[in-house]
Amino acid sequence: xxxxxxxxxxxxxxxPAAEVKQSLIDLQRINRWFGGVSTTQKLIDIVIRETxxxxxxxxxxxxxxxxxxxxxxxxxxxxxxxxxxxxxPTHLPAGATRVRADAxxxxxxxxxxxxxxxxxxxxxxxxxQLTSFAQEALRVCRVALLINDLRRSYLHLFAxxxxxxxxxxxxxxxSG
Length: 176
Prior knowledge:
This protein is 39% helix and 19% strand. It has a 5-stranded parallel beta sheet with strand order 3-2-1-4-5, with helices on both faces. It has one domain (17-166): Rossmann fold (3-Layer(aba) Sandwich), CATH 3.40.50. The chain has 5 helices and 5 strands. It is an alpha/beta fold. Helix 2 (36-51) crosses helix 3 (67-75). The radius of gyration is 16 Å and the shape is globular.
C-alpha cells in the first residue's frame, strides 16, 4: 500500500481534548486487540530467554498512554523498570517515570537502558528519520532495540476501520 501522509489526532497540537482522549482510548484497544501488547511481550520474552536477566530497564519511545510497558510489566516473571517517552507527556499516566523528548535526539547517556521499545511509532517517521531514531535508540540501549509496528495492507486497513465503526464509536482515526 502507498503511504499517505496525513496528521493523526495525536500528532496535531490543535485537536479538541475530547478527540485526543478518545483517540488514546482507541489506541489502547488497538494495542490489546492487534498485537501491540502481545507482540512486544513476545519480543521481551526472547530477550529474557537469551540473556537470562532477572531485571531489565526499558525505555518506551512514542509511548502515548504507556499502556504497553505497564501491561507487560505486570505479566513478566522478572522485574521490569520502565521509562515512558513521548513528545506530549500529558498523555502519559501520572506516577510513571515520564520524559518529554524528541525521539531523534534522546536525552540519555550511552547504554542507559537494557531495552528500547517502540510500538506503532516507527510508521510516523520518514526513512531518514527512522534511521536517525534507530541510531539514537541503539546508542542508549545495552541489549536490544525492539520495534513493533504495523504492516500496511488492505486487510489491516479494513480491520481497523471495521473496529472503529463497531467499537470505537464516532472517534476519527485521522484529523482533518
